[in-house]
Each structure stands twice: as C-alpha cells, then as structure tokens.
Design brief:
The structure holds two protein chains of two kinds. Chain A is of the alpha+beta class. Chain A is built from eleven helices and ten strands. Classes of the chains: A alpha+beta, B alpha+beta.
Chain lengths: 377, 398
C-alpha cells in the first residue's frame, strides 16, 4: 500500500492550491458570490488553461486523468478555497455523461468543455424525485424522426450558463423503473424550454426547468434508447467523490480558521483555546477530519471498481462526510462565537459549502439507507 | 402532582386561541411561517394588539400594567402563539430593561419609560457586547466620563439586534477604569437621536440585516439617565441576563418547529413513500420529540418555582443549553426534510409576491438552520452557561 499522491497529482494539488490562494481570496470570492452570473468566467478560463477541467476526464475521452483520485485532489482544493465555479456540473456530470454515452459527433463537445469554451448542466432531478436517481417522470415520445420532451426539472445547477442541458426523460416503464430512461442534449434556448433562475444559499446559481413540447432530432439522444441509467449511477458516484472531497477541503479550512481563532481570541485575559472545554472539542474535530480523509480515499480508490464494491464505499463516505461535515460546520461556528455568524467572515461561506453538499446526490440518511441495503443484499 | 390543565387553564387557552384567531394579522402569520422579515410596522402592529388586550407584559407585576400570569398561563400563551405563527414580541424593552427599571430604576424613570414601552412609543435595543467583550462581558471598554450634568460616552457596541429600528438603547459603560472590572461599570439609558451615535448594519451568514454595530463619539447623556448607582451596573446587568433567559427554552418555538417538520415530512416523498414513514427520518423526529416532551415539563417545573416578577437561578442556564440544542436539532431536521429544495437562496426580493421555488415550506429552512446557530451563542453562550451550572452545582455557589 502507498498513501502518497503520484508526482503528477502532487503537482496538480500544488498548482491549484497556489492558483486559488492567489486568485480566490475572500474579497475576490465575495465579489463572485454577489455577481449576477454567480461565477467568474475569468476564473473558469484560467482553471481550464491550468488543465483542471481536462484532468477530470480520462485519456480515451480527450483528457488526462478522470480517476477517483484525480477528482478527489481537484475537489479538495476547490473546497478548501470555497470555489463556486461549476466544475461538478459542467465537467463531472455534463461532460462525463457525454463522454460515456455520446457518439463521435457528440463527443466533440467534450473537447469544448476541456478547453473551457462550453458549459453544461445535468437536468435530472424533478420536483418530487428528491434523491432517487431512478425516479423520472419527464417523458420523451418518438414521432417519426423527432423526439418530444415534456416535464419539469428541479434545482438544475448551472442551467443558465449551460450551452446544453443534458435532460433525462422516460421512454418506457413506470415512474421509478431504472430501465426506460434516456438522456438528451437540449441546446440552450430550445423552443418550449423555459428556465426560472435563482441564486443558491452556498453560492452559484440553479434553475427550475420546464419542458413543454420541446422537439429534438433523434440525434439529440445520448446512447441507446432507455439505457442511460447505469451511466447516470456511475456519474452520481463520481459526483459523490467530488462532493465528499469538496466537503473535506472545506472542513480543513473551517478547522484551520477555528484553530487560529482559538489561539488569538482572548477573553478572561487568555486565549480561549486555553480553556479545556474548547481545546478538547478542537481535538475532536481534528480526529474526525482524519476519518473524513480516509473515507474520501476509500471512495476515490474504489470509484473504478465494480458497482457493488464501488457503491459500498461511496455510500459509506457520503454518510461519514455528512455526519462529520455537520459537526465541523456547527462546532467551528460555535467555538468562534458571534464573528462566525457574519457574512463577511471567511467561515460563513465555508460552513455553508460544507452543509449544503449534503443536499446533492443524497444526504447523510439516504446514503446510510443505501449502505444498509447493500450490506443486507 | 397533577399534570392536567385545570378548568381555568383550559378556559384561558380558549381565550388565547380566540384572540389569535381574531386579532393575529394573517399577513404577519404568513410571513413568520415562511421565515420572512416582518418589518417594523407589522412588528409594532402586533405589539399594539397585545397591549390593547393587556397581554403584552405577562411577566410584569400588575402595579406596572403587567398581566402577572402564572407559569402555566405563560406556557400556554407561548405555545399557542408559536403554533399560530404569531410574531415574537421584541424583548429588549419588555423583558430585559423593564425588570431592571422595576427593581432598580428611580420612580421618575419607572413613570417615564415603562408606559412608553407598553404603548410602543419607544423601541429599545441592547448595548452590551463589544468586539473585545463577548463571553467576557465585564471586560467592556465603552467609556463614560462625567462632565457636569452629563456623561460623555465613547466606544463601540456590537451584535445590537434590530438596532436599526430602535430609538433608545440601554448600555453598559465603564465609569471607573481603575477598579476591578465588575466594579467600574454603570447602566445608562441613551436616546439614539443624540448626536455622535452611528448605527452600522452587520449582515449575517444567511443574508439577514438583523444585528448592528453602534458607535459612540462624544455622546452626551444626561446624568438622570443613569439607572441605580454609578459603578453598580454589573449587578443590574446580571439581573437583566437572568430575565433574558426566562423564555430562552423556547419550548413554543420548538413545538411549532416540530409540527412544521412533520408536515413537511408528510408532503415529501422518498423512495416512493412519504418521508415521515422513512425509518431513519422518523427515528430522528421521534428522538427530538421525546426530548421536547421532557423539556416542556422541565421548563414548567423550573418557571413554576420562580415567583411572579422573579427569574429562575442556575436552572435558567440548564433551560438555555438544552432548549437551544433541541431547537437547533429541529432546524437541522427541517433542512434535511426539504431535500434538494433547501438549496435555493430565497432572498426577500425573490420571495416578494413571486411563486415559491419548490414547496413553499422549503424556502427558509436552510437559512433558518444557519441563522439559529446564534441561539447557542448569544445571551451568554452555551459554554458560559455550562460554566455557570458547574460553578454553582460543584462550587457551592448560590
């Protein structure tokens, strides 16, 4: 066994950490958070140039990475700096799905993504689907050479910036049948597709998407009709590695800020960190942070394995990260006191990033149930 | 022991329900339900409606115009108000300053300020915390220097809740820097319109402009605005803090919050079934509910022991710690229940008259989860409360 990063990944981590340290400080980030677009096109272009998008794709997909550890290294650094740019949505999900299912013509879009010229969004969740990946009520009906989509998609992150939405729709089966789900490339501005955009609490933007007789050519379908589910599950697993790693990075920042504050803030004539009631809780955070790192390593290391083994580690990691994330966010705020309640203090945004990862691709309880189901099988 | 409500209690509850049904403005209740800012006008309207009914000051003695309710009545009122989504009455004048004036204020101060608290002429805010004096409140530095018939005040207060609406502030100031910290503090009443006062908003992590910094530059305060004796302010401050904590268990809020979580969990579908039937979620809800059932009785037991107009002692610290843990756990459950729809940030402008994004109950839950982290920080953090409990129970304190 070897727990060191490869030389390439170590370089990637160093480069990204330095870049974000220089360019993504609190002031720069707060300006991005308050911008209309919700993210910075400039930062995006620079990330693409550094190869941060490309490393999220495999060599056969035109990238130079794509493994669990590549994802984990990138997202831990994004989390550490509280980055809100939509790498998960455009690259891991959107680009990843096209790379997995697309034909040669469609695959060309992946190149645009890697170069930083194209944004994507994965329009999968629906108003009542919650975290169930198999629940799709949006319909796709074939008529001659055309396909018509009807339905609603919920909290579609990055929808407004996306050149294409990758929309899941059902061609057969009942509302929760894993079979019968297809994915379609829907160009922005398609007739019949409307977006209601809004900001999110932890930064970035999303939209409610309504599909009202959106008519597409058959060439808009990704892969075989009704067979997209395994690719969706695979990308959800990759997204979970990314989210877990992002939360881990953000927890690192939260605990570093807390440690620093405990040593500098004085009350009753001494640093508050010298009170055992706080010192021991800080120690607990550091212990849990090591556990969180191990859970991310487990999930990242098994991302390429067969689904049963992969999912066991994915669900374990998301459950553990969900629990530890809440603990770290809440304890970091509590040990700081009032200062951590203010928008302008670094920790506010970081705490929101940590907690809100628990609302994407399954929360702490969802992953516990999935883990139990796998263990019982 | 008798755990049932008496006939009088039940009649009182009916009165409260009838009052809320008739008088609570629907628009205000809807805003509270959706976690929106009530605004000054609606807040003052509710204050006036309660005053008209004589229910504004349950804790005040009758001689000052209070209701003098017993513990059970207060409990019933709190619970019914929370369930009806009634606004919380702004406590700074009513529950914090008033008990201090009633016990330590001069006759003139009582006659001047207490009626104006009731009739809503004055909106008070609190000048206690400073950037360097949070948990260690006695280290405060805002200085008041006697100059003829005035004190000249310089310094900065912070975390001043709703200071943007207030026309008066009660402040702890340092009048003697050369003695033990606690012995050089005085309690001053300051008109916010006095030249030299500046209020600057602090935006909280959920985006709300709820608290402020208040800066004092050569602010001249008449000496008759000193409460009690000079340099005895710490005594009054401690007295006030025990009153601040009388309602801190927040049982009514917790019960209303738990009801809301259950409604959400009935509406949300997870794996093809209502979320409320999900065993993991149901277990989480049940655990909090069990804690809250006991808390409700703990709260009643403790406040029953304190005579009218008096505050409980160390038990108040226990109520605060456990009460805030329960409330925060309920906020966490509400956030979880909302699922992906917890992610949108529903600002006031987005809320407006627009249709909600997703189910309307989902809009405020994540913001409330973050906002209510304050519960275990303000009014003496839970760490400070635990210190008090330990000191009193093991150190032979009072």
């Amino acid at each position: 066994m070897n727990f060191d990063l490869t030389e390439e990944r170590q370089m990637l981590q160093d480069t990204l950490r330095r870049f974000l340290g220089d360019r993504y400080g609190t002031a720069a980030r707060n300006a991005i958070l308050e911008s209309d677009a919700g993210f910075s096109a400039e930062i995006w272009a620079e990330l693409a140039e550094l190869g941060v998008v490309g490393v999220l794709f495999g060599e056969d997909q035109g990238g130079f990475g794509g493994a669990g550890f590549d994802i984990a290294v990138v997202f831990e650094e994004l989390g550490r700096a509280g980055v809100v740019e939509p790498l998960l949505d455009t690259a891991i999900l959107g680009g990843g799905l096209i790379a997995a299912l697309g034909d040669a013509a469609q695959q060309a879009l992946v190149e645009d993504v890697i170069e930083g010229g194209l944004h994507l969004a994965f329009a999968h969740g629906e108003p009542t689907s919650r975290y169930d990946l198999n629940r799709v009520e949006t319909t796709a009906v074939v008529s001659g050479d055309n396909i018509t989509l009807n339905g609603r998609k919920a909290v579609v992150i990055n929808a407004e910036a996306a050149g294409y939405l990758i929309v899941s729709a059902r061609e057969s089966g009942d509302a929760s049948d894993p079979d019968g789900i297809s994915l379609f490339l829907v160009p922005a501005g398609s007739t019949g597709m409307s977006l209601r955009g809004y900001p999110m609490l932890s930064g970035g933007r999303a939209a409610e998407v309504t599909l009202d007789d959106v008519t597409l050519p058959a060439s808009a379908r990704l892969g075989t009709a009704g067979a997209a589910y395994p690719a969706i599950v695979d990308r959800a697993a990759a997204a979970s590695v990314a989210l877990a790693a992002e939360a881990l990075g953000a927890m690192g920042t939260a605990s570093a800020l807390t440690g620093e504050y405990l040593m500098t803030r004085k009350q009753f004539g001494r640093p508050i960190g010298s009170f055992q009631a706080l010192a021991h809780r800080m120690s607990d955070l550091l212990i849990e942070l090591e556990q969180a790192r191990s859970a991310v390593i487990n999930a990242a290391g098994h991302l390429g394995d067969d689904p049963a083994l992969r999912d066991r580690h994915i669900h374990a990691a998301r459950n553990l990260i969900g629990r530890v994330g809440r603990l770290v966010a809440e304890e970091a705020i509590q040990m700081h006191g009032g200062i951590a309640m203010t928008q302008e203090y670094e920790l506010a945004h970081i705490a929101k990033r940590i907690v809100m990862t628990d609302h994407r691709f399954g929360d702490t309880d969802y992953h516990l149930e999935q883990f139990i189901a796998l263990s019982a099988a | 022991m008798d755990l049932s409500y008496s006939a009088e209690d039940l009649a009182f509850r009916d009165d409260v329900r009838a009052f809320l049904d008739e008088k609570l403005p629907k628009e205000s209740a809807e805003k509270i339900r959706l976690g929106q800012d009530l605004g000054k006008v609606a807040q003052e309207q509710w204050h006036a409606l309660l005053n008209e009914r004589g229910w504004l000051a349950p804790n005040w003695p009758k001689e000052f115009g209070g209701a003098e309710w017993n513990a059970v009545q207060r409990h019933i009122f709190e619970e019914e108000c929370a369930r009806a989504n009634a606004p919380r009455v702004v406590p700074f004048g009513l529950s914090m300053l008033a008990p201090v004036l009633q016990k330590f204020g001069s006759k003139v101060q009582q006659d001047t300020y207490l009626p104006r608290i009731l009739d809503g002429t004055d909106w008070w805010c609190q000048g206690y915390s400073e950037p360097g004096a949070g948990s260690d409140l006695a280290s405060l530095k805002t200085r008041a220097v006697r100059d003829g018939d005035h004190y000249v005040v310089n310094g900065q207060k912070t975390w001043t809740t709703l200071g943007q609406h207030a026309n008066w502030i009660f402040c702890l100031v340092r009048t003697d820097p050369d003695v033990k910290q606690q012995e050089g503090i005085s309690f001053l009443l300051i008109d916010m319109d006095t030249p030299g006062i500046e209020v600057r908003p602090i935006i909280l992590l959920d985006g709300s402009p709820e608290v402020n910094e208040v800066w004092f530059t050569d602010v001249r305060v008449p000496v008759e605005n000193l409460v009690g004796e000079e340099n005895k302010g710490w005594t009054y401050a401690k007295y006030l803090l025990t009153h601040e904590r009388t309602n801190i268990a927040g049982v009514g809020f917790s019960q209303a919050g738990l009801d809301a979580v259950k409604r959400m969990a009935r509406a949300e579908v997870s794996g093809g079934k209502p979320l409320i039937q999900n065993p993991h979620f149901a277990a989480r809800v049940a655990q909090v509910e069990i804690d809250l059932m006991a808390m409700s009785t703990t709260n009643l037991r403790i406040i029953s022991k304190a005579a009218v107009g008096q505050a409980p002692g160390v038990e108040a610290s226990m109520l605060k710690v456990k009460g805030t843990i329960i409330r925060q756990e309920i906020n966490d459950l509400a956030r979880r229940a909302a699922g992906p729809y917890a992610m949108p940030f529903v600002s006031e402008e987005l809320a407006g008259d627009n249709a909600p994004i997703g189910p309307d109950y989902a809009g405020p839950v994540a913001a409330q989860y973050f906002n209510n982290r304050k519960l275990s920080i303000f009014g003496g953090s839970n760490e400070i409360q635990r210190g008090i409990i330990a000191k009193v129970s093991m150190g032979g304190g009072k």
